[in-house]
Amino acid sequence: MSKKTLIFGYLVLLFFLHQDSWLKNDGTLVMGFLPATLAYHMAFVVAATLGWLLVVKFAWPDGLESEPASENSGEEAADS
Amino acid sequence: MTQVVIICVYLVLLIGLGVVSKRFFRGGSADFFVASRSIGPFVLFMSVFGTTMTAFAMVGSTGEAFNVGVATFGKMASSSALVHSATFFLIGLRLWSLGKRNGYMTQIELFRDRFESSGLGYLLFPILVGLIIPYLLVGLMGAGSVIGGVTRGAFPEVFASTGGAVPPWLTSLVICAVVLSYIFMGGVRSAAWANTFQTLVFMAMGVLAFVLISAKLGGFSAASEMADSAKAVRVGNITELQFFTYLFIPLSVGMFPHLFQNFLTSKSSKNFKFMLIAHPLSIMVTWIPCILIGYWATGAFMPGTETPIIPPGTSPNAVLGIMIAKLSTPVIAGLVGAGVLAAIMSSLDSQFVSVGTMFTRDIVAHSFGKDRFSDTTMVWLARGFITFIVIVTFLFTLAEPRSVFTLGIWCFSGYAALFPLVFAAIYWKRATKIGAYACVLATAICWFLLFKASGYGSNGAYTVGGMMPVVAMFATCAITLLVVSLATKAPSENTLKKFFPIS
Question: B318 is in which domain, residue-wise?
Answer without folding.
Answer: 2-14+39-413
